């Protein structure tokens, strides 16, 4: 049996009649993705505002840039939150470690310049 297909701009085939509804669904989902990405950027910006202040506090009081015990507690907490939210805990841990590494880099820069 053959099905009639039309092509989208990427050349991918889509059954006729579904084109418009698929496009509308994709567009609706992408609007939400864009809103979520914007929220992530704003939340990260706020987090870095806080961690910058922590960096200055630590530098002023000669405290080390990294706090591995605090990090271990955060990772355990985030992994549990992720599990409850059905997000891969390994991914949540990797993401937090990535962010924390950047924060520590900032703290080292602050400590050197103070
Ligand atoms: C922000 C801090 O500094 C570092 C960065 C952390 C973070 O980004 O959450 C956590 C622990 C520290 O290694 C802190 O000590 O609270």
From TrEMBL:
Enzyme class: isomerase
GO MF assignments: chorismate mutase activity
Enzyme Commission code(s) on record: 5.4.99.5
Pfam families in the cross-refs: CM_2
Gene Ontology annotations of biological process type: chorismate metabolic process; salicylic acid biosynthetic process
SUPFAM superfamilies: Chorismate mutase II
Domain Chorismate mutase stretches: 20-111
Renumbered residue ranges of the record's region Disordered: 1-23
Biased composition (Polar residues): 1-10
SMART domains from the UniProt entry: CM_2
InterPro entries: Chorismate_II_sf (IPR036263), Chorismate_mutase-related (IPR051331), CM_bact (IPR010951), CM_dom_sf (IPR036979), CM_II_prokaryot (IPR002701)
Keywords linked to the UniProt accession: Isomerase
NCBIfam families according to UniProt: CM_mono_cladeE, PRK09239.1
Entry-linked PANTHER family: CHORISMATE MUTASE (PTHR38041:SF1)
Name used for this protein in its record: Chorismate mutase
Natural source organism: Streptomyces kanamyceticus
